[in-house]
Amino acid sequence: MTDEEYMSRAVELAKKAAALGEVPVGAVIVKKSTGEIVGKGYNLRESGKSPLAHAEIIAINEASKTLGGWRLIDCEMFVTLEPCPMCCGAIINSRIERVVFGAYDKKAGSCESVVKLFELPYNHRPQIIGGVMQNECADILSDFFKTLRSK
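RE: above sequence
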């Protein structure tokens, strides 16, 4: 599958989050060598009443359980919104090799927008690709907040 096809799966998850009234962010983790999706998640902060329930964290937890360990070697993450500092920390700690994100986050994005955490001298530096299906990912968020404001 291509980056766009995996991102489309993340977009589907983001739409599930929106349907629950959650900020629409979706993430999938793929084992590169097999192409298998080993983890997926979408925002559940409101439903779960937890600041930790970001799409990326949920996907990392699921992938770790699927693969039987916390090191997600040979894995890539596809996420609809640029990860925040917490999620970047989890990505570093789980050793995800490549992060592909859709929309840039000018308020909290910590791959490129606000700060470039992956460029700091941590023990692991994933490859980053931003802007994959950027318009579609950004539109889901814009539409969600537009609808929220109108209520």
